[in-house]
Amino acid sequence: MRNANRRFVLRARPEGLAGPEHFAEEPAAIRAPGPGEVLLETLYVSVDPAMRVWISENPGYVPRIEIGDVMRAGGIARVVESRAPGLAPGDLVQARTGWQSHPTLPASEVQAVPAGAGEPTDWLGVLGTTGLTAYFGIRAVAAVRPGETVLVSGAAGGVGQIAAQVARIEACRVVGIAGGPDKCAWLTGELGLHAAIDYKAEPDLAAAIARECPGGIDAFFDNVGGATLDAALANLKLRARVAICGRISQTAAGELYGVRQMGQLIGKRARVEGFIVTDFHERFGEGRIWLSAQVASGALRHRVHVLDGLEQAPMGLSMLFRGENMGKLVVRVAP
Asked: Is the pLDDT of residue 1 over 60?
């Protein structure tokens, strides 16, 4: 084990994309656990669009990260030392580790990962809040039904890849929006979507959606917002549902896009609902059982994009907003 806790802290609030220049490495002494605490060795940390929101002046639904604070992040870690019942050295756990190599946390903030329950990265991806967001967003918020047409934006990202497949497994016709021919080929090939739209190659996204969803959209799972949301709203069917999961196109935008098609909601009697996965905390077990079964059967596939080294985390955050990842983006901190 290292003698120091390697940490990356917020150095400056970004305007636009966040990148390495907004963070600083500040090692600290490893703190021995007190009663009811555990010392962890971080194995992987997650990189998520919400992280850009957390370092804003006013993130809204969560406290902001202050200048000088360790960057907040979910992680998978190994217990090094424990002074808490039920957790022993060597145990694999899920926790909000932050961007640091050896956090010391209250045991109440640590969740043991069941032995043999998939790969460690699964608990940041398909079995973590990423997969649960997709599961509840599609099944509870969008409330899809067999035979419906479902559109998913950001479909090659961490949440989008799972949301699209949950809808497909629910016997829906699924169309994904992604950037680039490789991502689109992956969606219609390995993931089994019925069609994919390369937004980078389409001069008129609304027209492209109309082409691939000729009868209109019953449900739209949106990770992107902005012009993509506008294009989808123009193609809604009667009683359509729009689940707002994210707005990655707007999170770091200098000027927000003014959505023009909100009037469609009136005539189509459609519903738009934003949600946060913790709204469904009491049902996480249900979601994990379903997702695990689909992965085990081969019906649900997922990709993890791994960057090596904690120093890659700041670069990973900017990479996420440039759409350079395919699948769930994580950073490997230790073997």
From this structure: no
